Amino acid sequence: MSLLRRNWISTFLSPHRVELVHLRRHIKSAQAEKQVAACEGADEGTAWGAALAQLKRMLPAGTGAEIHILLSNHFVRYAVIPPQSRIETPAELQAYAAFQMREIYGERTGGWELITSSWDPATGAVCAAIERGFLQELEELAASQRMKLKYVEPYFTSVFDHWHDRFGKGRAWFALVETGRLCLALLEGGAWLRILNQRILDDVEEELLVALEREALLFSGPAGTSGQVCLFAPEHPGLTLPEGSGWQIVPLEDKTRPAPAHYPFNNMTRTATPDA
């Protein structure tokens, strides 16, 4: 068996920039460096067209590398799939998820590819939706560059999977903030209760606080409008909530478990560290 491993490329795609990590694996060493480039014509065409075009300009051709793609939450829609004891097969789960997505987003879901998390009849699941045309373009781009498209993953679910054991078994608030976008989720006993994915229009701190208070009122009543929120916001270092608000931020990233190399950095020139 060969001791050499396939080189791989991990990339983060957002409407306004592309971040790319190229890891070359040898027998005894692995080096990774990050490239970052703004998307040209980001306000023109489809929501993802500029990011796709920029990725094409950045990818090396003919390397035979694997490529992993992390999608900004600007490109993904989410929904909680409630528990249902009668779901027994993958086909039934897919049909149930499609029904729930249509209830929320309407008939436009017909053009979306639905990706469902691990299913538990007692706790439900999460469904992520990505435009089918976008996925097809990514597959064609990888093939044209002679690369193997390993996976396409939503940013929100990737962050949750990376730190999932830090949310505990009780009630937990989880916030992911990126440039221009806030995702906020509520879990209880390992079950998803709510996912909010919205644009940030002005002040990050204010909009996070408003979202927390609104969602807490909806699910907890006035007595539950405070607590801890697990936060990952690498593009907003130092993000805090006002003293006296009743909310305390608990950062997910620390020295014991740093973010993977292909996650967005707040410092656009920083050299990446390979994933553990």
UniProtKB/TrEMBL annotation:
On the tree of life, the source organism's domain of life is Bacteria
Q: What is this protein called?
A: Uncharacterized protein
Q: What is the lineage of its organism?
A: Bacteria, Pseudomonadati, Pseudomonadota, Betaproteobacteria, Nitrosomonadales
Protein's organism:
Nitrosospira multiformis
